[in-house]
Specification:
Length: about 250
């Protein structure tokens, strides 16, 4: 089932909708569940909520496979460049969409310091690091990779689909390089062959994502880099990856 709740992102003073997936029997099963926090929550479950009229179809997959997990999707800020600002830890110069100030660190501090404790209080979660996951696409993929490195004490696993690393590659690399990554970390990092304009751009995107994958592997993480052949920068392409990253992230020894 899907529940919608309102929350406040206190550092920004803004109300925001949570789109929360819960197993249908969550109130009676007596179980506690891992939690996957995701960006752009409105795009996850229903076409009518999605920005471009096509969602990930994540609810259908979770229902069909009886995956025992809670997914907390936080809706983005739809005004101007505010989504870009909230979903980037670094300031971006004018040559990218007019430039914007990155507020991603403030956002992550809110997510781990306020939102996660609220979710753990009101729902039957497994609140430990081993069962706390993060995921997203595009700017949300960038934030997921950043969180997996720089908030590794909170998140043990992450799905980083089509991460927009080109906006801030040197800064992200520097932060990941100095981060402390637990060896039980799992990182799914993917990019689509049709997201870019030509073969040269695809080679650059592949090199960047593989280098970041190698860096995370050197830090001790188990990394699953994936080139989605034929994949574009859209929800339909990311939907096709759900079985790959969910099975990978949900495998516990």
């Amino acid at each position: 089932m899907i529940q919608k709740h309102q929350t406040t992102i206190t550092p920004f003073g803004l109300s925001r909708t949570l789109h929360i997936y819960l197993p249908d029997d969550w109130e009676t099963s007596g179980r506690r569940y891992p939690v996957l926090y995701m960006f752009d929550g409105h795009n996850l479950f229903f076409d009518q909520d999605a920005t471009y009229g096509k969602c990930w179809g994540l609810k259908d997959y979770l229902d069909r496979t009886h995956t025992q997990i809670i997914v907390v999707g936080v809706e983005c800020n739809h005004e101007g460049n505010n989504r870009l600002s909230e979903y980037c830890p670094y300031d971006v110069p004018d040559d990218w969409w007019g430039g914007f100030d990155g507020r991603g660190t403030q956002y992550m501090d809110w997510l781990v310091g306020e939102l996660k404790p609220q979710v753990d209080q009101y729902f039957p979660t497994l609140p430990d690091r081993s069962h706390t996951l993060i995921g997203g696409s595009s700017m949300g993929g960038l934030m997921s990779l950043y969180a997996l490195g720089c908030y590794n004490h909170v998140f043990s696993r992450g799905a980083c689909l089509s991460p927009s690393v080109r906006l801030c590659y040197p800064q992200l690399w520097a932060d990941l390089e100095k981060s402390s990554v637990d060896p039980d970390t799992r990182a799914y990092i993917s990019w689509g062959s049709e997201e870019v304009r030509d073969k040269q751009a695809l080679a650059k995107a592949s090199a960047d994502n593989l280098a970041l994958s190698h860096l995370m592997s050197q830090k001790g993480a188990d990394v699953y880099p994936y080139l989605n052949l034929g994949g574009g920068h859209n929800e339909a392409s990311w939907e096709r990856e759900i079985p790959l990253f969910m099975e990978y992230l949900m495998e516990w020894n």
